[in-house]
Amino acid sequence: MSRTRIAATSTTAVLSLALAGCMGGNIPDASAPITQSEAQTGAEAHPQLLAEFGGAMTGSQAVYVEQVGKNIAVQSGLAGARDSFTVSLVNSPVNNAFAIPGGYVYTTRQLVTLMNNEAELAAVLGHEVGHVAARHSQRRQAAAQRNSILGAAGAILSGILLGGNPLGQQLGQAALQGSQLLTLKFSRSQELEADELGIRYLDTAGYDPRAMGTVLSSLAAQNALDARLQGRDDARLPEWASTHPDPASRVQTALNKAAGMTGTINRDTFLTRIDGLVYGDDPEQGVVEGRQFIHPELRLAFTAPQGFYMVNGTRAVTVNGQSGKAQFTLAQYNGDLNSYVNSVFSSLSQQQQIRPSNIQRTTVNGLPAAYGTARVNNGQSQVDVTVFAYEFSNDRAYHFLGITPAGSASTFNQMYSSVRRISTQEAASVVPRVLDVITVARGDTVASLSRRMAYSSAQEERFRVLNGLASGEEVQAGQKVKIVVRGS
């Protein structure tokens, strides 16, 4: 979660309709040039989109991603000049890639760290360009308009309560960072169509088209590992955590489409160029360590309940479990905690008034706090919605928005009571994890290299997924591999 104040923007509607995030038969004409209207749409949405995903990164790594992206984008026929495209590496810890009309293409640094060669980077960016070339976002526009999302983090329940859908069913989409709320999910046929277009672009650019299948395989493996580490039953990331719909089901299709094709992959060049990328959470946006969230710049921390897991986003931290979900974020604060709590409740619905039965004041670890709970009808049942707010200064406050089955609001009491300020010393101890690209020495093994991973659990599994190594596959002397280490 960044320190930027959250506010609704006038461009939210544009982003909701335009954003083509997805990673996760006959193809119609997918080479019509970028229109003036599409260019204007993209130009208007671009600054807000960057803000939603942690901002555009700079430096040699970002330049490299831009070069590869422009090279693959021109294969689409959308525009004849490389300068017609804007390719951005964004500072997000989520595995994601997306594009919007007008030639704007994006990938997160986290997804780049999962790749193992330049052809895979080109495949991901080519897939996204394929969505734009096939005008998938425009074809989804009518559905998006029927299910418009307000975008402000304070209004994350509006889509649920306004839409008339059961609250429990929709909570997975509601408990989101703002950036993911703006992302459209494409149909399976559209995903396969974008895969096929991406494969076509890879072939014409001289890359190995099989990279589309291998990068999808790595993403599926990462999803499965995340599910196991987070204690989830399925191996797919829930919709609120990723816009990549079931990559595992698309791997073989992509490999079949690319059968018999060959090309360059530029593995060593790619690994050398991404060396040093931040892996996972950026301390400037806060860090999740096990059940603790700690933000060195905002000087705060809290602990999730046992059995729950957290996902850190640019705008908010989500806390997820079988018995409830919550989001930690901030809103405008005028110095009155009671007013703050009421304003969060007011933002939840435009069709019905949601008010707590009362607002109570308390102190949590020396912080002035206020909270209230409202019971809300949820189809055939009811749920409790709790807002728990904390004052950190005269003009800065944060809050949890928690949702639990009726009568179970106390599920998060321990978490609500864990919010605290952190010391300068504790803040200084928070350092990022970064990629370290090394050359395998004689005698090195997967087991020995895995022990160098900056994690206390699942070291070998993380190492294998990070490097695209199958179970039982070994490394070879002279080979470049990635490990994750503590930065400075």
From TrEMBL:
Name the residues that span the membrane.
Answer: none
Task: Output the GO biological process annotations, alphabetical, semicolon-separated.
Answer: proteolysis involved in protein catabolic process
Signal sequence span is 1-20
Q: Which cofactor does it need?
A: Zn(2+)
A GO MF term: metalloendopeptidase activity
Name the Enzyme Commission number(s) assigned to this protein. 3.4.24.-
The protein's UniProt keywords, in alphabetical order, are:
Hydrolase, Metal-binding, Metalloprotease, Protease, Signal, Zinc
Task: Determine if Protease is one of this entry's keywords.
Answer: yes
**InterPro entries attached here?**
LysM, LysM_dom_sf, Mito/Outer_Membr_Metalloprot, Peptidase_M48
Q: Where is the LysM domain?
A: 436-483
A cellular component term from Gene Ontology for this protein is: membrane
Protein name from the UniProt record: M48 family metalloprotease
- Which species does the entry assign this protein to? Qipengyuania aquimaris
